[in-house]
Amino acid sequence: MAIGKNKTFQKNDHREINKKLKFFHFSENVGSSLPIWLPNGELVKHLIKQYLKKLETEYNFNFVTTPVLGKIEMYKTSGHLEHYQEYMFPAIKVNEQKLMLRPMACPHHCKVFCHQNYSYQDLPVRMSENVLLFRYEKSGAIHGLERVRQMELKDAHIFLPKNKSIIKKEITNCFFMIKTALRKLGLKIDKIYLSLHDSENMKKYYHDINLWKKTENILEEVLTELKVTFEKVKGEAAFYGPKIDFQVNTVLQHDVTISTIQLDFLLGEKFKLKYRTKKQNKGEIFATPIVVHLGTIGTYERLLSLLLEQKNGWLPFWLSPAQIMIFSMNNDETTKKYAQKVFEFLKSHDLRVEMMDVNKKISENIKLAWERKVPVHIFLGKQETESKTITYIHHNHPQTKHNKDIFQLIDQCQKWMNNIESEKNKKQK
Ligand SMILES: [Zn+2]
Questions:
Q1: Fold of 317-417
Q2: Strand ranges in 318-420 using DSSP code E only, listed in sequence order
């Protein structure tokens, strides 16, 4: 029994699935745990980025690009050097400067905030970026795409006034945005953590117990008001504040975080962030914002590893690198010409469609299409060619559709593409 179970785990391991799908690669020559995204994986990543940009735009985020390096002094200010140094690559000395590869982008986003000279009317300021991060994970901790040393995080920071109801509203919005994104991706969450500090081990945390209570209560109130089932976990907070973490159990039973909302009352103070208040006439000209760190889908590396494992490689239709494979069931020239027409027609409707390899047997082609997890197979023979129809099957809907008009498939594909929302309408659900 146990052996069978282990075999399943092994089969569903994203590293195993990747052998056929060719999404990513690691080369010892490049460096351990530094992922190389191959064309299929890069396409999937691009599609997710496109989707998230649309979703974030609906939630009024702005987009920035910041450098992968930062001066060592900046990480002293942020506290990363004190609390996170063991996960950072050593500094690079250039002339008189010491530069470090960033493990997080929060300090860079603070610098954007400083530069913009915001007033209270501009807040909340929502800033998003796909950031490349570098973390020196120990050899024993690295695992496929799940835990790597270079990663790309969908990272965002929200700068807010110290006003409880505004903070709660913003965290609620972040929560809905995460839920919408995960639903669209079809990723199943196993549990939600409210990650708290540990009063018996304060080494890695700041020492203001009242501030911990205040920030932890805000997150707990939001989860309670949303009627979310969650677990409180002591000692899992970030060094700067408590978190709401969306957890997934991997096939190897690793309990990993995918999405996260983190509340930080310190970062604004550390970087001396200021915005102009409306009380200028009373002499209170500037105030310091608090920061919410938002990871909507975590890193693209971990996200892909979880999607592949949960779905055994069958990504949702909108993410499949090849969505449709066309099979010509005979060698007849008329059928071949018809197949080419069908191919071009579907392509003109922005579908990712491929023709079978004519140098291989049909049975071999079908086997390959299944292995590559192409979700829709179209079969064209004499009958279809004469009646100008198609016969097709979707892997998730095993009933074959015979002699259908091609527009019927196009309509169906649109439904599969939009399988979930209309984000705006459903985000409040
Ligand atoms: Zn951050």
A1: Rossmann fold (3.40.50)
A2: 324-328, 353-355, 376-380, 390-394, 397-404
